[in-house]
Amino acid sequence: MLVFAEAIAFSAFSFLAVYSDMKTRVIPNKLNYGFVLIAIGFASYSQSSLDYFLLILFSFAFAFVLYLLGAWAAGDAKFFAAATAFYPFFHAFHVLSFLSLFINAGVILAAYFLFVERRMPLARKIPLNKLREGMVSAEVLYLEGRKIVRWTPLVGFARMLLGKSFLPAGRRLVSLKASGVGKKEVKELKAAGVKYLLVRESVAFAPAIVAGFAVSLLWNIV
Questions:
Q1: Which of 21, 32, 78, 122 has the fewest CB atoms within 10 Å distance of its CB?
Q2: How many CB atoms lie within 10 A of CB 191?
Q3: The overall pTM is greater than 0.85
Q4: Do both 13 and 66 map to the same domain?
Q5: 104 and 143 share a domain?
Q6: Do 102 and 127 share a structural domain?
Q7: Same-domain check for residues 91 and 156
Q8: Which H or E run includes 171?
Q9: pLDDT category, 220, cuts 50, 70, 90?
Q10: 59 near 83, Cβ under 8 Å?
Q11: Number of domains the chain contains
């Protein structure tokens, strides 16, 4: 009976998250926090082991690092951790089981773009006069004196090979955050004389996370 209630709760929250992400590219904090609290409530009856809470902690830390790298938005990171919190209710698990969910979600997302969209999300050059709030930067811009430095992780490693620091020393104007550029950043870019910005397509991760969850129940990679 408890498993049935857990399945209904997961299905309901997943539907709301996918709908919100597909429609607005935002998963509300209230939904994610409610998702986690309900999962912990269920866990108090069936999964109160230390490994369960370590799984949630590790999954959130992993998702947060990806957020800092600009891989997805904060809402996607929180939803990933919340979905992971429900995983032990339906399958045997260990503290790294979140990696199975992530790998399967990634494969499903890549397959969707390759075989359905027949393309991959690409970065494109947007003139600054056409840059809008919420567009997601594909590069980090720094202002060193009056010089604009365009940085990506690949550029950072190239700098290290040349004996330079991984990150430029100047003031950061815009980052890779998946929530996109804000009004303040657009103004600062214009004031710094930036002519264009490479932006990438916003991707709804919630559907892939839910699909990855379902596949992980059948095929646990890690």
A1: 122
A2: 10
A3: no
A4: yes
A5: no
A6: no
A7: no
A8: strand 171-174
A9: low
A10: no
A11: 2
